[in-house]
Amino acid sequence: MSKAESTAPAACSAQYRSFLRRDRRNRALCAATQAALLLLLLALWEILPRMQWVNPMFTSYPSALWPTFLDLAKNGKLAHHTWSTLSATIIGFTLSMLLGTLVAAALWWSDYVYKILDPFLVVANAMPKIAFVPIFYIWLGSDYSIYGMAVAIAVFITIMTAHTGFRSIDPNKIKLARTFGATRLQVLIKVVLPGSVPTLISVLKMNVGLALVGVIVGEFQSANSGLGFLIINGSQIFKMNVVMTAIAVLAVLSGLMYLAIYRIEMAVMRRYA
Amino acid sequence: MSAVLAAVPSVAQARLELRDISLRYFTREGETEALSGISFTLAPSEFVGIIGQSGCGKSTMLSIMAGILAPTSGKVLIDGQRIAGPMPRVGYMLQQDYLFEWRTIVDNAVLGAEIQGLDRDRARARAVQLLEKCGLGDFLHHYPRQLSGGMRQRVALARTLVTNPDVVLLDEPFSALDSQTRLAIADEVVDLLRQEGKAVVLVTHDIGEAIAMTDRVVVLSRRPGRIRSEFHIDFPSHRGGRPTPFAARSLPEFNDYFNTLWKELDVHVEG
Fold this sequence. Notes:
The complex is a heterodimer of chains A (273) and B (271). The model of chain A is unreliable at 1-6 (pLDDT under 50). Chain A is mainly alpha-helical and 273 residues long. Chain A has 12 helices and no strands. Chain A has helices at 3-6, 14-50, 56-59, 62-74, 77-109, 111-126, 133-167, 171-179, 184-195, 197-222, 227-236, 240-269. Chain A starts with a helix and ends with a helix. Chain A has 2 domains: 14-57; 62-269, MetI-like (MetI-like fold, Orthogonal Bundle), CATH 1.10.3720. Chain B is an alpha/beta fold and 271 residues long. Chain B has 2 domains: 2-89 and 165-265, Rossmann fold (3-Layer(aba) Sandwich), CATH 3.40.50; 99-164, no CATH class. Chain B has a 6-stranded mixed beta sheet, sandwiched between helices. In chain B, β1 and β2 (30-42) form a beta hairpin. In chain B, α5 packs antiparallel against α6 (149-162) and α8 packs across α10. The longest helix of chain B is centred in the last third of the chain and has 17 residues, at 179-195. The interface between A and B is medium-sized, with 21 and 23 residues.
């Protein structure tokens, strides 16, 4: 449908061409300013410690990170740590999506159960889950406590948001299915779940970030690998270069994960305009 | 068309009956009587209009006929058999199309058949034929957002008819459309429903629509809804059978019926 707009024919009016020019210029300006801002921040990070305006012991600086990065990357250590964090995050958010959607569906199914559990869910969601890090370590051991933390942080908000989404499905769509004699399970499978895909995608977006938080915090406590481990270990032995490199990798990692979800969103949402 | 229709086992057509139906709503604040002592019979292939002011319980009456709302007292019968839930022999078309935006047009049209577990290929073939009949043959694999309001409502009609019900309930099916589209689509819908030999109940607050489209008009009183009166609609001045809804509007009988029903409805504009 949007094809007509993008194939601006040569025969279009002068005003329209000038509109297109302005639009292109605005977009270019925006991208250029973003790049400049990033460069400025990196430059400040480089210059301020070097001029001794801030203590380089505390912040390190980009050019000092590069050798550390190469050093860590050379023997595959960095890839190993990054993969630990990435795989734990993927496991964490997959589990919380599945568990959260399942529980939300159960709450949609039985309003009675929802009414009973609602206050418990609200409190569980409001709790700072990080308080459980030491307990999870004792209960679940070093690996599973990391997954546990990711799920604990992400799952309650998943349940609540997905359930709200399920309930906001147009009741007339459900009525329509019922006029054909649909059972409750058919309503769930044919109307509520497919109708909630946009909600589930936005939950997924939120979940990736939350699961990453859970994994890093879990790694602080219990791991002997992962970016969280690099950060906590580096800070304990005061290797600020390692800490900052791990944080930089983490920034890139979360950016890439967000991009991946964004791609999925674009592909799916084309059907839900 | 006829090949597909013939493939469906033809049962004697349903006769729908409401026997002394009442409905009360309960809330913490109290109870409301929505319908009271409604008795009503729909003959095979008959078109009946139900009119009444908003809030008189017209739509509620349809929901009871469709089996998705249980009356507080009274019975719903199809061919003398009491029903207690939605029946495949009764199709229901709602005020808006409520097409699922994630399904293509043809996938939307087979929704009911899918829910009722009918043969997939046969339902699809019938859906395609019905959609082609409604002039939507080129849009089978489009999504609902790519269609206009009138086209979407035609898809909704096809969706209702794919399951081949004997009785079709129409709940103000054109209220979401602009007035030109309404007039055009009313002709098409009536034509298609008569061709298929359906019995039809049309609920509307549009007096003209009821006269133009149906054989009998039932007037409901204000809440609690009771049957106030009934009128048989006949156009003796039109030769050659029943006129199309559009043609009916310009016949002399139309205005007479309109005035009678207007008085019967006893409309008071408040405020």
